[in-house]
Amino acid sequence: MLAYFFVLVAIAFRFIPHPWGFTPLPASLLFFGARTSPRMMWFPLALLVGCDIILTKYVYGLPMAWDQFVTWAWYAGVFWLGTNLKENLKPIRIGIASLATSVSFFVISNFAVWAATNLYPKTTAGLMTSYAIGLPHFMRSVPGDLLFSTIMFGTPVVITWLSHSFDKDSDDAAAA
Questions:
Q1: What pLDDT, in 10s, does the model give residues 90-140?
Q2: Structural domains of the chain, with CATH
Q3: Which of 28, 41, 103, 176 has a CA-to-CA distance to 147 between 20 and 30 Å?
Q4: 149 neighbors 98 (Cβ within 8 angstroms)
Q5: The pTM is what?
């Protein structure tokens, strides 16, 4: 249930300003992949595709382009990465997966924008310019991805700890 909640929070978050570039989207997809069945991948993907269409066409007033399909494939890739965490939810593996989402989005999305639009010349210099312009966003997204991954993957641990703490307190009271 928590995985669905985090995906809904991530989608709602896309409709509010986030000037620091902190977004819970990659962390929610990692968490969803780690905590649900692979058959449920359609849920976050369908919501995110719908959200992207609404934001692109109606909020930003931009035409849909083929590079949007690259982003949707990236969503599926992050979900798949989360499924690989399922058997071994160690903090170091979660941190590496979170960093992988940041790096992969930076590399893939900037390449797709370079390839799909006329914003940059179709040269190596144009591609490097695309990456250089995206670098400040990347530098802000890394701490955001790590923060939200820590919060999302830490929430069940804290809930379990609190549950055991309250159970222990009630056992102590019953013994007295």
A1: 999 999 999 999 999 999 999 999 999 999 999 999 999 999 999 999 999
A2: 2-175 (1.10.1760)
A3: 41
A4: yes
A5: 0.90
